[in-house]
């Protein structure tokens, strides 16, 4: 695992005065104390490259690159081929996965399928988002939540029972509620409407109260479904690493699942909601904090726009696939 966040740290005290928020107000509602923001001119492929390069240090070459992101550099082409080229990987398979904050879990399932089918032997999966490019400067409800960053992991073919084994995934979606999390304009739908380019709403929009309800229900149902399929009881989970969206959501999901909250790893306070980067960043920080041991059972779950959701379970590998980098060290090395 490896993770990276931009060096510019934005604390709650640094938020715009026009939002009329305090550190206590933000922490009490979200659990977030700071987030990292990319400098102007920084795109998603730039932050993805940082995490990818770190995870590939000293590793064998890969034959596939998957980039989970809802903030691609362009509508066309996908950003994954650019990341692969900048890494010097040659003409490998590369494509994007658009499942918003569930993207990393969708990427794990996709990567596992590519490996199981023999299409890929060693695969690089990156979750990366630069939400600061989409946020409305006047929207404090989203502005207090989101940060920028990237996390990466290497997947390879292995043997049953080997530490690091991906044991199962559960995925779902509900397009009927797509409007709860959206960027209204900028795609083919808005172009087909006849509205002149540049005259629509290109900012990230989220209906917070409804998203909260959906996130708690969907992540709980998905995680419970996967636990049942694996024959695990809640106490069989050594580490629960949910999408770092909002502390209240995570506490509610943990409680409903019956997983002790002390087994839930959070780095939300330091980095905020980093979209598809959220779970791999949390895993990298958990490894750096020496919280994970070989063979321990890990459950992850996520919820995002689409609506999409998903869960995955695996055992922790015998050694990290690449160098991990904690939040503090990431800033110092940037």
Automatic annotation (TrEMBL):
**What is the originating organism of this protein?**
Streptomyces parvus
Domain Beta-ketoacyl-[acyl-carrier-protein] synthase III C-terminal residue range list = 227-316
Molecular function, one GO term: 3-oxoacyl-[acyl-carrier-protein] synthase activity
Q: Which Gene3D superfamilies match?
A: 3.40.47.10
Q: InterPro entries this protein is in? A: ACP_syn_III_C (IPR013747), ACP_syn_III_N (IPR013751), Thiolase-like (IPR016039)
Its taxonomic placement starts with: Bacteria, Bacillati, Actinomycetota, Actinomycetes, Kitasatosporales
- Write down the superkingdom of origin: Bacteria
Check the record and name the SUPFAM superfamilies matching this protein.
Thiolase-like
Beta-ketoacyl-[acyl-carrier-protein] synthase III N-terminal domain span: 95-175
Task: Kindly list the biological process annotations in GO that this record carries.
Answer: fatty acid biosynthetic process; secondary metabolite biosynthetic process
Keywords for the protein's UniProt record, in alphabetical order? Acyltransferase, Cytoplasm, Transferase
Q: What is this protein called?
A: Ketoacyl-ACP synthase III
One Pfam family hit: ACP_syn_III_C
């Amino acid at each position: 695992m490896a993770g990276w966040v931009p060096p510019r740290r934005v604390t709650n005290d640094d938020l715009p005065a026009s939002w009329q928020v305090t550190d206590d107000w933000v922490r009490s509602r979200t659990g977030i104390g700071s987030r990292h923001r990319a400098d102007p001119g920084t795109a998603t492929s730039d932050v993805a490259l940082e995490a990818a390069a770190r995870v590939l240090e000293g590793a064998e070459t890969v034959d596939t690159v998957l980039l989970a992101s809802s903030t691609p550099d362009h509508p066309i082409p996908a950003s994954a081929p650019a990341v692969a080229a900048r890494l010097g990987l040659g003409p490998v398979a590369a494509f994007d996965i658009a499942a918003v904050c569930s993207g990393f879990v969708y990427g794990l399932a996709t990567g596992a399928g590519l490996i199981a089918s023999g299409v890929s032997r060693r695969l690089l999966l990156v979750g990366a988002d630069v939400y600061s490019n989409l946020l409305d400067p006047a929207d404090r409800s989203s502005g207090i939540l989101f940060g920028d960053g990237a996390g990466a992991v290497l997947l390879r073919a292995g043997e049953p029972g080997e530490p690091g084994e991906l044991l199962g995934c559960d995925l779902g979606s509900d397009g009927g509620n797509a409007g709860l999390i959206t960027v209204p304009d900028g795609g083919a739908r808005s172009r087909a409407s006849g509205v002149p380019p540049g005259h629509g709403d290109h900012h990230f929009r989220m209906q917070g109260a409804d998203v909260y309800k959906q996130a708690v229900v969907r992540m709980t149902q998905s995680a419970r479904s996967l636990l049942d399929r694996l024959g695990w009881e809640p106490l069989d989970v050594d580490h629960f690493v949910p999408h770092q969206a909002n502390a209240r959501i995570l506490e509610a999901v943990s409680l409903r699942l019956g997983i002790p909250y002390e087994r839930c790893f959070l780095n939300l306070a330091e980095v905020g909601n980093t979209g598809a980067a959220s779970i791999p960043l949390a895993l990298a920080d958990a490894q750096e904090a020496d919280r994970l041991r070989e063979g321990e059972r890990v459950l992850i779950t996520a919820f995002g726009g689409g609506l999409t959701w998903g869960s995955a379970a695996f055992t922790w590998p015998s050694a990290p696939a690449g160098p991990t980098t904690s939040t503090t060290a990431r800033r110092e090395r940037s």
